[in-house]
Amino acid sequence: MSPRTLLALGALTGAVAFAGAAAAQTPENTATIQTTFRGQVDPACRLSIPSSPTADNAQLGAAGPGSADISISQLAGDDGASLGATIVLVLPAVCNQAHTLSLASQNGGLQGDGPPLTGGPFRSNLPYSVTVNWADTEQTYATEDDALSVAVGDGAVGSVTVTIQIPPGGAPLAAGAYSDELILELGAAG
Q1: Which residues contact 187 (CB under 8 A, 6 or more apart)?
Q2: 54-58, 107-111, 115-119, 158-162 — which is least confidently predicted?
Q3: Quick one: which of 89, 97, 90, 92 has its CA closest to 156?
Q4: Which distant-in-sequence residues (6+ apart) come within 8 Å of 23 by Cβ?
Q5: 168: nearest Cα among 110, 82, 109, 80
Q6: What is the DSSP letter of 173?
Q7: To which H or E segment does residue 118 belong?
Q8: 89 has which bridge partners?
Q9: Burial, 1: exposed, middle or buried (Cβ in 10 Å; 0-12, 13-18, 19+)?
Q10: 58 with 72: CB under 8 angstroms?
Q11: Reported confidence tier of residue 26, pLDDT bands at 50, 70, 90
């Protein structure tokens, strides 16, 4: 080896040794603390106040968290048969876990306030259908069925769109006030 090569290697070795010694030194009045962060997000499903962008022969009345009042403008025509109605409800929603969407009708359709009719030309119950869109899933529920239950394997955020369709025609409706309670629920799976 030439002396020039040895000199260059010696200078490099010295620089490395100096850098290592500087990193090993610590000031005498220094303290260190390690901080750990923890938090908890509770499982939750929320439905917000519905709006109604579309309605035919129906109106969305009072609406609030957990409730909506829908009225049918004219339930039956001169012949007593249903005139039909459609209303679309849009409910902003979030569910931060796997969950189930459930839908059920309390009366199995619009039920008249009089005694149930078992024969004759009139009826006192008007079944209807409900189509629900949520988390890339669409399901249709007929109120005369027991209930609808849809499992969603993950959390979801967006709008639950509920389309209620009361069919026109059929046997004439008996006189009286007709009502039903439709229950839509988002809840933890299992």
Answers
A1: 45, 99, 100, 102
A2: 115-119
A3: 97
A4: none
A5: 82
A6: B
A7: none
A8: 162
A9: exposed
A10: yes
A11: low
| pLDDT, average across residues 119-123 | 91
Tell me the residue type at 27.
Answer: P
Whether residue 162 has pLDDT greater than 90? yes
Q: What is the pTM of this model?
A: 0.80
Q: What is the Cα–Cα distance from 163 to 88, expressed in whole angstroms?
A: 4
Q: Measured between alpha carbons, how far is 140 from 175 in angstroms, rounded to an integer?
A: 29
73 phi and psi angles, rounded to 5 deg: -60, -50
The pLDDT of residue 124: 95
Radius of gyration of the CA atoms of the chain, in A:
34
When pLDDT is cut at 50, 70 and 90, the band that residue 190 belongs to is: low
Domains and CATH numbers, the chain: 46-188 (2.60.120)
Q: Rounded CA gap, 165 and 143, in Å?
A: 11
* Whole-angstrom distance, CA of residue 186 vs CA of residue 99: 7
Please list the helix, strand and coil fractions of the chain in percent, rounded to the nearest 5, in that order: 10, 45, 45
Residue with tokens 């409910």: 91
Reference 57, options 167, 173, 188; nearest CA is 167
Residue-wise DSSP of 51-115: EEEEEESEEEEEEETTEEEEEES-SB-TTS-B--EEEEEEEEEEESSSEEEEEEESSSSEEESSP
Q: What is the pLDDT of residue 53?
A: 96
